[in-house]
Design goal:
The chain contains 5 helices and 3 strands; from the N terminus they run βααββααα. The chain is mainly alpha-helical and about 90 residues long. Helix 3 packs across helix 4. It is elongated.
């Protein structure tokens, strides 16, 4: 992936394993903002947005809900703390 290139929502869906509707949902919820729009109003994403969506997918796969995902993305909680809580890990594990 090129750092300066913008990718269509379909390309991002294939890259992240999320459905197009899931990507739209996360954009509408303000979790991942599209980097830009085409003249026709289609959403475009850069590599940073793609990486964020990959993290969202991983968190979702762990069983995180939308509020948990937001807390990790805003650094209100760490990935380790969230995974520990969801997976039942202890600090000594």
């Amino acid at each position: 992936m090129n750092e300066r290139e913008l990718y269509s929502i379909g390309d991002v869906a294939r890259r992240t394993g999320l459905s197009v509707s899931a990507i739209r949902f996360y954009a509408d919820e303000g979790v991942v903002t599209p980097t830009g729009l085409t003249e026709g109003g289609f959403r475009r994403y850069d590599v940073h947005a793609v990486a964020r969506l990959e993290l969202v997918r991983t968190l979702r796969d762990l069983g995180a809900g939308l509020d948990d995902i937001r807390r990790v993305l805003t650094a209100e909680t760490s990935l380790h703390d969230l995974a520990s809580r969801i997976c039942g890990w202890s600090r000594t594990s």
